[in-house]
Amino acid sequence: MRSGTEPQSNCKCQSMDMETLPARLFGELEDFINRLPCKEGHLVTVLHKAQHLFGYLPREVQQFVADRMGVSLAKVYGVVSFYTFFTMVPKGKHPISVCMGTACFVKGADKLVNALKECLALEVGQVTTDGKFSLDVLRCIGACALAPVIMVNGKVYANVTPDQIKTILEEYQ
Q1: Distance of CA 2 to CAs 10, 23, 87, 171, Å?
Q2: CA quadruple 134, 130, 111, 171: dihedral, nearest 10
Q3: Is the per-residue pLDDT at 14 higher than 50?
Q4: How far apart are the first and last CA of the chain?
Q5: Which distant-in-sequence residues (6+ apart) come within 8 Å of 90 by Cβ?
Q6: Whole-number Å distance between alpha carbons of 105 and 15
Q7: Mean pLDDT of 91-113
Q8: For a pLDDT cut of 90, what percent of the chain falls above it?
Q9: Residue 154: its pLDDT value, please?
Q10: Rounded to an integer, what distance in angstroms lies between the CA atom of residue 66 and that of residue 76?
Q11: E-assigned strands of the chain?
C-alpha cells in the first residue's frame, strides 16, 4: 500500500540518476511522448508507458516525464502517489498482487498474504533477495465474483486458497 510520501533521499531508487537508468528506455519514452497527438490529458498514459519500460517510476523518470509533458514535477508526483498502480520502488521480475477488496478479504485474502509472506520470506512491499518476486496488496481489482484473487505478472488466479500458493509460485521458478 502506498504511504503517500515521497521516498526518503537515502532510498536506493532516489540516489540513481539518468545515467544509471538505460538511456535507450528514455529514448523510447521520448519517442512515445512525441507520437502523442497532443500532450494535454495524456499524463497517466505516459506514466503507464514509463512504468512499463522502467518497471517503476523513480524521481528521475518522473522529472523526465514532467519536462517532456510540460508539467511540474509536483503534478507528476501527485498522480504517481495517488494511483496505487504506480510504484516508485522497483518490483520483482514476477510482481504478485493480492486483492484486499471486501469480497476477497471476506473470503480469506489475508490468509493468502500470509502464505505468500511465508513462502517467499518477505513482507508486503518488498522484493525477494533474488529479485524474482515482489509482493503487494491492492484495494480491488474488480474480480469480486472470483474472490479471493491474486495476480502474478498480470495473470489473475481465481478462488485461490493458501494451499495453492506453492503451486502457483512454481509456475514462475
Answers
A1: 18, 28, 8, 28
A2: 90
A3: no
A4: 26
A5: 13, 55, 56, 127, 134
A6: 37
A7: 95
A8: 76
A9: 87
A10: 6
A11: 94-99, 133-138, 150-152, 155-157
pLDDT, mean over the chain: 88
For 34, the grid coordinates are: 512525441
In whole angstroms, give the CA distance from residue 116 to residue 121: 8
Pairing of β 94-99 and β 133-138 = parallel
User: CA nearest 97: which of 106, 108, 107, 84?
Assistant: 84
| Count of residues making up the chain | 173
Q: Which three cell numbers stand for residue 75?
A: 503534478
CA atoms within 13 A on the CB side of 74: 0
Supply the pLDDT for residue 13: 34
Looking at residues 168-173, what average pLDDT do you find?
94
Q: How far apart are CA 51 and CA 49, in angstroms?
A: 5
Distance CA 157, CA 150 (A): 5
For residues 85 and 53, the model is more confident at: 53
C-alpha cell at 159: 478462488
Residue 98 to residue 88: CA distance in whole angstroms: 19
